[in-house]
Specification:
about 80% helix; about 0% strand; mainly alpha; about 230 residues; elongated
Length: about 230
């Protein structure tokens, strides 16, 4: 079995040290295999071994200075370190590449950084740009809906949650959020209550957790009305 694949199997089984050791052996035996550097750095980041991840990425980027995947990985590293300004710089570099499969993902991560910096409107711009690259990304569609709610654009958020329901009718979060915007927009109770009911049916435990979020949503709405 190819060692990169085997390493991820070990990782998923909780054999973290063995997975890392296997990738290090692969790098020693095949130093030109760029995938091994990226996978090892990713495992270090997931394992919160940030200094080790940085060391691997610095080595990799010296060998492959024009490979966007390592610049992207640096962005992930600094995002995990909550150094959002540096993370932004790396992800913005990725979007400048003429040919990279990571452009959409980099735009999403730029948006995530702006969310972390409490700049929801800027985040939304990048999420919507990423959506133009891939209109079937369910995670992104929900992210756009959630961000629209954060900026108080509930009518627009409604459209994205309905789009989510069309594409993934068993997504309990989409059902719940559609219920929330219906409540905020003061739709008839019989109109939005079924969305909450379906969410509860699909995932009762998560439903109870999300109910607690309504207080925060109500606060947003109140602030919006105060501004108006």
């Amino acid at each position: 079995m190819e060692r990169n694949h085997k390493a991820f199997q070990l990782w998923e089984q909780g054999e973290f040290n063995q997975a890392i050791q296997l990738l290090m052996e692969e790098i020693n035996d095949n130093p030109d295999n760029s995938d091994s550097y990226y996978n090892l750095a990713t495992m270090f980041i997931l394992g919160h071994k940030y200094d080790d991840a940085k060391a691997i990425l610095e080595t990799a980027i010296e060998k492959y200075p024009n490979d966007s995947i390592f610049i992207y990985a640096f962005g992930n590293l600094y995002y995990e370190l909550e150094n959002y300004q540096v993370s932004l710089n790396y992800f913005e570099q990725v979007t400048q590449f003429q040919e990279t499969p990571l452009k959409k993902d980099a735009m999403v991560m730029i948006g995530q950084n702006y969310l972390a910096l409490d700049q929801s409107k800027k985040a939304l711009v990048y999420f919507l740009s990423a959506y133009e690259e891939d209109k079937l990304d369910m995670t992104l569609i929900l992210l756009i809906g959630n961000t629209l709610m954060q900026v108080g654009s509930f009518q627009e958020a409604k459209k994205y949650f309905e789009l989510s329901l069309e594409q993934a009718p068993k997504n309990d979060e989409a059902w719940f959020k559609r219920g929330v915007v219906g409540m905020v927009l003061e739709e008839d109770l019989n109109s939005f209550q079924p969305f909450f009911n379906k969410s509860k049916e699909l995932n009762p435990s998560r439903y109870e957790e999300r109910i607690k979020q309504l207080t925060a949503i109500e606060s947003i709405v109140k602030n919006q009305k105060d501004v108006e």
